[in-house]
Design brief:
The protein has about 250 residues and is an alpha/beta fold. Helix content is about 40%, strand content about 25%. It has two domains: about 5-170, Spore Coat Polysaccharide Biosynthesis Protein SpsA, Chain A; about 170-250, no CATH class. The chain is globular, with a radius of gyration of 19 Å.
């Protein structure tokens, strides 16, 4: 049986981390939590489990995850966020993979719970994530919504079962995150040489809403689906308006 390290990064995740750890404790041969000095009970909850708990200053999502991977006991990694948990079916899929001694690159769909409702459309599902990999040929890249770079490229196995994502408990949390992520995204786009104009600031959010709500069936998620699509569009507006302001501040306007 191949040995698997589960790697999790945390900061003030007391309402989520216990559920996450419960979902992996039967399949993990090593559990590593890298915490950015949480001020809530995250650490005390983690100490109740057989985990290696490390505290380290926050350096961003990709850098933090890359550091965490180097501290794991085994090369084969399952990377999870603290607000995620494995469904029973996904637990079985990973157990079968280990029993077959197949240390492959693998991914799974992520199903998100939004303010108490599971979102099955709205551009949020299926949200395929590559999270099982050999750390010797992979690294995380990106400021937010980080992606996994694999070198050399590998065929990715799709596992049965969902990763359950407990995203926002209130709509206010979603708005707060939209403000935060839009600023980070705008800076990232600017540094990458991406530019926009006043038309794009308004057209892109409108197209995003229409795409997610109608083409990707957000209306089937009811009132929560409308909220998800609306805030996603709003975040898109914030991102490009902030990008335009960066251009104007540096006199780099299209």
């Amino acid at each position: 049986m191949v040995l698997l390290s589960v790697v999790i990064i945390t900061f003030n995740e007391e309402r989520n981390i216990g559920r996450c750890l419960d979902s992996v404790k039967e399949i993990a041969d090593d559990i590593l939590v890298v915490d950015s000095f949480s001020t809530d009970s995250t650490e005390s909850i983690c100490r109740k489990y057989a985990v290696n708990f490390i505290q380290r200053k926050w350096e961003g999502y990709s850098l933090s995850k890359n550091f965490a991977n180097t501290q794991a006991k085994f090369d084969w990694i399952l990377s999870l966020d603290a607000d995620e948990a494995l469904s029973p079916q996904l637990q079985r899929s990973l157990t079968e993979l280990k029993q077959k001694h197949l240390p492959v690159t693998a991914g799974f769909n992520r199903l998100t719970n939004y303010c108490g409702k599971w979102i099955h459309h709205s551009g949020w599902y299926p949200d395929f994530k590559i999270r099982v990999f050999d750390r010797r040929i992979t690294s995380w890249d990106g400021i937010i919504h980080e992606s996994l770079l694999i070198d050399p490229p590998q065929e990715v196995l799709r596992l049965s079962g969902d990763c359950l994502h407990y995203s926002y408990y209130t709509i206010e949390e979603h708005y707060h995150q939209a403000q935060k992520f839009s600023g980070l995204s705008a800076t990232y786009l600017f540094d990458k040489g991406k530019r926009t104009n006043i038309i794009g600031v308004y057209l892109r959010p409108a197209m995003k809403f229409l795409w997610n709500y109608f083409i990707r069936f957000g209306f089937l998620d009811g009132s929560k689906g409308f909220t998800v699509c609306r805030i996603a569009s709003y975040e898109n507006y914030l991102k490009y308006s902030k990008l335009l302001r960066l251009q104007q501040a540096r006199k780099d306007v299209l």
